[in-house]
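Re: your question from the hallway

Yes, I did run it. Sequences:
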Amino acid sequence: MPQGPEEEFTSEMHFTDEIVCELVQVCASDLMVVNAARVSFNRESEELGDKEKGLINFLMKNHHGTPFEHNMFTFRVEAPLFVQREQMRHRIGHSYNEWSGRYAKMDPKFYVPSYVRTQVGGPYDFEEVNGDAANVFRIHLEKTYRALYMEYERALRQDVAKEQARYFLPVSTYTKYFWTCNARSLMHFVGLRNHPNAMFEIAQVAKSAENSLIDHMPETASRYVEHGRIAP
Amino acid sequence: MPQGPEEEFTSEMHFTDEIVCELVQVCASDLMVVNAARVSFNRESEELGDKEKGLINFLMKNHHGTPFEHNMFTFRVEAPLFVQREQMRHRIGHSYNEWSGRYAKMDPKFYVPSYVRTQVGGPYDFEEVNGDAANVFRIHLEKTYRALYMEYERALRQDVAKEQARYFLPVSTYTKYFWTCNARSLMHFVGLRNHPNAMFEIAQVAKSAENSLIDHMPETASRYVEHGRIAP
Amino acid sequence: MPQGPEEEFTSEMHFTDEIVCELVQVCASDLMVVNAARVSFNRESEELGDKEKGLINFLMKNHHGTPFEHNMFTFRVEAPLFVQREQMRHRIGHSYNEWSGRYAKMDPKFYVPSYVRTQVGGPYDFEEVNGDAANVFRIHLEKTYRALYMEYERALRQDVAKEQARYFLPVSTYTKYFWTCNARSLMHFVGLRNHPNAMFEIAQVAKSAENSLIDHMPETASRYVEHGRIAP
Amino acid sequence: MPQGPEEEFTSEMHFTDEIVCELVQVCASDLMVVNAARVSFNRESEELGDKEKGLINFLMKNHHGTPFEHNMFTFRVEAPLFVQREQMRHRIGHSYNEWSGRYAKMDPKFYVPSYVRTQVGGPYDFEEVNGDAANVFRIHLEKTYRALYMEYERALRQDVAKEQARYFLPVSTYTKYFWTCNARSLMHFVGLRNHPNAMFEIAQVAKSAENSLIDHMPETASRYVEHGRIAP
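Structure:
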């Protein structure tokens, strides 16, 4: 990779492994689940008593999913592209709007992992790599990221369109997006992504989302865990 | 149709043409549309000024639909089955839970129209029928509904399962359901159903929904009407 | 219900409990499932050997659903409205076009069950009703259907719009529709509707659909049954 | 970026701007559109005559979309990640399975554009860059790609998990995926992506898909273009 003099760097590099999934708006309650289910029987509840909790348990256990759709969670996510690519494979009951490298310059923010791993068996069996080997990997990443962002900025200065200058940027570049889902689609996502087989980095997103479910629909969240984190 | 003595009627008949579509929960704002769109440019707004309004206009005009998905409206609808059948053909971005004739007895509530119409040309050209002809139609409907509900109740008394006793009930029987959508799917529904070609009765649902959009996302609603009620 | 002289009947009544779900076009294979999954590993198979069968089993068992979406089944269904209403609640991965009572006259074809049932416990515990009680129910249905269709035709003769004349028609009136789905959405439908808790009549549709899966994707169908008829 | 001796390269680099979208299976016809629409009127056609063509025109013009859903196209796409990222934002009526960098090593195949462009006005106004400037960009890309793939392979040799070693790989790395859609969702995709505002590279995918529509549903394709490439 051709490298220019150090003074070409115009931006401060930002290396991190923080993944943010912050709740920005929510409209959700356990009681609405109950009333959505009870409309089948032409009945309605005003409080969440034992019967109502029993009903949520019944719905979760028997995979009656639609009563869990009458609610909404919106998150602001900051994560590397390799996380975004996996998350946006979730299509139904999920809405997204994302930072576009066609329209706006990407920031010099890149993923450098604290947790470096090696595969030791099946596709989901990993062991942490520590010490020198992990440090070498991180040092190579950081040097490479600096060089790549310099190439990106140089291409921009030479008036190459943003949508082409970004060809230099790696899948570990950070992006930002709004993500809206409902409790049912959230539980489907969490069931696959807060799971022992899930990629460590997307599990951070899933854990944050699950915490929001616990905060706003505690009864739903408890029964979900109790029945094996399988979305109804 | 076999008729028993009057004393067999155990329920009071309810004839109406009122169609209810009542907002029960909402989380929606024009500003969220702006911020969902601006994340593409890695920018954010805190107030809805002229630039922000211009952006909503741009999105609507150019059919950029996804920024309108980060919000939620839940309605409680009371309408005849022939309205429900048409509404639930709307699949994407719409959630429903409905009164079930398998699990609960249906109420003796039936649709009797004030507005009786005759087709006078193409499939969407109607003229109102007034006077005697309309009255005869309504009288026949009411007599029939009484007889049918009597048959329904008699079958139930003879222990026929609810899911079979209802075979007597007409498509003009009232049902009740929760309906959740977002502004984008709402606009798609309203564009087809608050339209000159739409069936009069479903247009009542669509008008109520559109009023909720006006109340909670006034800028979105104005630009939607301005650009021909075509969902972005 | 007001009744006119017999000569008013212009159509021949058709009472039946036959429910048709006929495959009209299909593009589906087990091999495509394998290759959709193997693209993850940048590999491709040309024949369905033991390894490929093992992979289908793995996908089904571990709920990897997307490889089952690259195929299509289209059915022509003839069923009463109360079946159609339940089926069309299935939204994702399902396409429908249905006979419209707004545009075309409905046929005098109505559901009269051979299998009459009574509820004997929970909502899904039924026992067959035989002999006189069942016959009385069927006789009442047939008499009612005759009277209702007469009312429907009379309203049409008096130029009431088709979309209103049908208010007389019961939910047991037959309709007709095209239904297109893929193996994944088909399995989701079948899992709920060819199930002990499903309504008997919709189970007829589900069984036909499952037979088409068996014919065209035998390996998928076997593993589906083996793993408890839970859609991946 | 740290560089090792040349002999470390174990793979042959492949630089290209070819984007492949090859039809691998299809089940589609104009006649099925007609029959899906005609079921509304309880009618059926056996041939595609003038009346049937007129009906397709009517459906397209008046945005009746559902009759265009009873068909299927499956494509094998080979394209850079920045194309895949944009395509997979299309959620409804689209199915995907993709090469996974978690499970399999990525090939040393990278996008080097013949068509280099600069932005000269609004976000969609570009002019081609020719001569030296374009060559310099391409040379920098190729040198960078070589260095990045070397880093990728070195990390793999040092037993870093594949899902982490790929942090070095750019968004211009080629991936491969199966994509299944129906004519309605295909037309929605093509309307946005074979459009003057679309990114040049995704337009190659959209043009291939549109050619398959022309081949298998010529009447649908003609009316689609005639009515402004707006999906019904």
